[in-house]
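hey
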């Protein structure tokens, strides 16, 4: 090897957010980030080139868009539940099931869908998700008649099935497309789309569907709402068919380069599930994550009922309060994602945000009945910042605890737990509200948030991916031409290369 090699490698170790380690890349490809770190590969020590493509941002934006479309449909009935009850002449429990069907469908279908994600990849999963989501919206267009509640439930079931193909993808997409210092942020952007959909679902339906008494006029407003969601879902489906790509031609990180080198027949999905179920820190996280997110699902589903009980006729403001919860949560998600990329303090951050979610829920519970809507807006915003901001933290922490298992599998188990607790909490809180009022219902959720906080404190912070990155050796070449190794100090949340600090 030539004498100028060490200088080239040392120069290549200089890293920035957009221009990671490279071997003095110049020329037409210099616009893209190129990394040429080494992966020890047997005795040959061959290096694997890695690159970040600009298209990664388009892919994550497209994913966020169809996640938004699907999440909007989850809450579009619940936030106008009193109007839907009147239009279809059904009980409140039936309307609650239009939301809970999203949770129920997830539980039996998550394992085959995760298997499909592992075997067929991101593009096939995205196409199936969008086909189901689009079909669900058009079925609902045909249900805008008072005697067709079963049709609207069928459309909601199709959309809920699409959700199973969506919820577990953010961490997987971030790993496949993004670099070491971007994965937590990319994962947060993926979750961001889902949260934005919920926010729009809180805001738009009360505006599009006013509480009028004339059934024909009400049917017209409901039909307009369904047509808008169907049109948006169709456009996004077409874009996914044209644009969405399975993976970049060159892997973004050394970890992804290694993952691509593993023969498919060496991976056992069943064995992976069993290993995860035997991972005690991860299983503690599965339960604590389910408790937190299940509380969020219950609050979101029953928000209209809670607000209307204390502030009659405020359907639109109920939607705005829901919007406040989610917008604050989106800010919290992005801040937490960036914080994790910078600090890698997974357990500390998760525990702190969980504790603050509990405090936020307590404050919200005891101020809801004060008679001042502006107080509810503030307390709901604080609650949303931490409770919704917790969502990507759970994904990221899980990937660290379960490395090198598939991100889709660990995320699927987290979401499965959330759906189970979501159904339990929604039904239970609804019954408690009917019998004892909203304060008792919210205190019921606070008890389980306290349990989740304690459980989070007992999670052993076994950050396996970080350990793997710290132990990995990066080839450097001594001035005499001999090969020596240097420890890498970089670490990543969803996946990542060994990124040296100069």
């Amino acid at each position: 090897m030539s004498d100028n090699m060490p200088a080239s490698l040392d120069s290549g170790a200089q890293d920035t957010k957009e221009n990671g380690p490279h071997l003095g890349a110049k020329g037409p490809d210099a616009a893209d980030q190129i990394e040429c770190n080494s992966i020890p590969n047997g005795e040959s020590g061959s290096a694997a080139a890695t690159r970040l493509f600009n298209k990664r941002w388009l892919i994550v934006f497209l994913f966020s868009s169809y996640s938004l479309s699907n999440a909007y449909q989850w809450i579009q009935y619940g936030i106008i539940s009193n109007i839907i009850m009147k239009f279809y002449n059904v009980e409140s429990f039936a309307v609650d099931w239009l939301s809970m069907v999203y949770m129920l469908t997830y539980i039996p279908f998550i394992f085959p869908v995760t298997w499909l994600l592992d075997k067929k990849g991101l593009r096939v999963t995205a196409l199936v998700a969008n086909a189901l989501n689009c079909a669900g919206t058009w079925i609902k267009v045909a249900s805008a008649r008072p005697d067709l509640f079963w049709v609207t439930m069928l459309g909601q079931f199709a959309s809920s099935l699409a959700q199973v193909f969506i919820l577990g993808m953010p961490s997987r997409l971030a790993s496949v497309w993004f670099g070491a210092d971007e994965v937590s942020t990319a994962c947060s952007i993926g979750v961001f789309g889902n949260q934005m959909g919920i926010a729009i679902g809180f805001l738009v339906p009360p505006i599009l569907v006013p509480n009028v008494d004339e059934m024909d006029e009400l049917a017209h407003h409901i039909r307009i709402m369904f047509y808008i969601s169907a049109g948006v879902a169709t456009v996004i489906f077409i874009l996914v068919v044209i644009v969405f790509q399975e993976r970049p031609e060159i892997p973004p990180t050394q970890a992804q380069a290694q993952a691509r080198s593993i023969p498919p027949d060496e991976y056992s999905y069943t064995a992976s599930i069993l290993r995860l179920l035997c991972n005690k820190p991860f299983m503690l996280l599965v339960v604590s994550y389910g408790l937190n997110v299940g509380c969020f699902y219950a609050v979101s589903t029953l928000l209209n009922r809670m607000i209307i009980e204390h502030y009659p006729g405020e359907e639109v403001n109920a939607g705005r309060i829901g919007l406040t919860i989610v917008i604050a949560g989106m800010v919290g998600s992005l801040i937490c994602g960036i914080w994790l990329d910078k600090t890698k303090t997974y357990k500390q951050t998760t525990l702190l945000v969980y504790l603050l979610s509990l405090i936020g829920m307590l404050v919200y519970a005891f101020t809801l009945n004060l008679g001042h809507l502006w107080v509810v807006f503030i307390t709901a915003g604080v609650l949303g910042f931490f409770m919704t901001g917790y969502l990507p933290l759970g994904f990221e922490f899980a990937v660290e605890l379960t490395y090198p298992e598939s991100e889709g599998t660990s995320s699927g188990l987290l979401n499965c737990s959330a759906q189970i607790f979501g159904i339990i909490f929604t039904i239970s809180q609804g019954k408690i509200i009917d019998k004892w009022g909203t304060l008792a219902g919210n205190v019921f959720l606070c008890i389980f948030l306290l349990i989740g906080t304690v459980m989070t404190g007992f999670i052993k912070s076994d950050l396996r991916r970080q350990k793997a990155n710290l132990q990995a050796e990066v080839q450097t070449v001594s001035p005499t031409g001999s090969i020596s190794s240097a420890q890498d100090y970089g670490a990543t949340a969803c996946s990542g290369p060994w990124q040296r600090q100069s």
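The longest strand covers residues 473-477. The two ends are 22 Å apart (CA to CA).
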